[in-house]
Amino acid sequence: LVGGSVAIFGALRRLALALPQPAAVRSRPGRVWRWRNLLVSFAHSVLAGLWALFSLWHSPELLSDIQGGYSVSGHLLVCFSSGYFIHDTLDIIFNHQSRSSWEYLVHHAMAISAFVSLIITGRFLVAAVLLLLVEVSNIFLTVRMLLKMSNVPSPALYEANKYINLVMYFAFRLAPQAYLTWYFLRYVEVQGQGAFLTANLLLLDAMILMYFSRLLRSDFFPSLRKGSAGRDVDGEKFLID
Predict the structure, then answer these.
(1) Residue 22's closest CA among 145, 135, 163?
(2) Are the C-beta atoms of residues 175 and 49 closer than 8 Å to each other?
(3) Where in the cell is it found (predicted)?
(4) CA 51 → CA 45, 73, 78, 113, 164, distances in Å?
(5) Is 48 exposed, middle or buried (0-12, 13-18, 19+ CB in 10 A)?
(6) Which residues lie closer than 8 Å to 171 by C-beta, 6 or more apart?
(7) Burial, 129: exposed, middle or buried (Cβ in 10 Å; 0-12, 13-18, 19+)?
(8) Does residue 146 contact residue 237 with C-beta atoms inside 8 Å?
(9) Are 21 and 32 in contact (CB under 8 A)?
(10) How far apart are CA 102 and CA 207, in angstroms?
(11) What pTM did the predictor assign?
(12) Residue range 109-126: average pLDDT?
């Protein structure tokens, strides 16, 4: 299932190559890979985000058993997203973007290792589904980056997405992450798989707060941005820039 997911996203990458690109992207060769990569990321966010919402809506009883709860839909979702993270890692490495996208590689390594452990043991699948609610937020985050890259001459569209993105960040990224962190620290034994997942979760907490501060500085407090003047980030892929 994971291998099939990798193949699906490989096909989507080839499809993205055939799609028309904005003039602002075509005129800067360094942006072409990033544009294509973001389109594939957008497809994953839409599919995985809606899938996570459906899984929890269809089986709300899963929320009462985060450690041992199981659903076929949730299991398939974790396999599907694992395939995306593997594909994206390979895409970054094979296109020589590792240095500029190292943050993504760290994030993906954490996600892949955690998800594979869940798939093998069948435990904490509900926690993974809750974490994948973040993909609902990523829909608007990716739209934000695509708008910036394409230089869309509609500031109203960017402004509207900016505020929607902030709300979604709180609702689908910060809130589930905070709840799971509280749950793991309170109820999960810090040994074996529990210790491994708790460590991953705490590291992810730090990354999310760092990205949130970047988002606020970039979209709401631009005067606080440091070191961005004159920097060419066309070929870079940051979770927030």
Answers:
(1) 145
(2) no
(3) Membrane
(4) 10, 8, 10, 21, 20
(5) buried
(6) 136, 137
(7) buried
(8) no
(9) yes
(10) 13
(11) 0.91
(12) 95
* Amino acid occupying residue 217: R
Which residue in the block uniquely carries the two structure tokens 């995985």? 48
Distance of CA 221 to the CA centre of its chain: 23
pLDDT at 38 over 70: yes
**Domain residues of the chain, as ranges?**
1-15+29-218
Tokens for 29?
A: 């060769």
Q: How far is the CA of 181 from the CAs of 79, 127, 175, 200, in angstroms?
A: 23, 10, 10, 10
Query: Which single residue is written with the structure tokens 């041992």?
Result: 68
Residues in the chain: 241
Q: How far is CA 189 from the centre of its chain?
A: 27
Question: Which of 90-109 are b and which e, b meaning 16 or more Cβ less than 10 Å from the residue's Cβ?
Answer: ebbeeeebeebbebbbebbe
Identity of the residue numbered 171: A
Give the Cα separation of 79 and 12 in Å (integer). Answer: 17
* Geometric angle at alpha carbon 121, from 80 and 138, rounded to 5°: 30
Query: What average pLDDT does the segment 43-49 reach?
Result: 98
Name the average pLDDT for the chain: 90
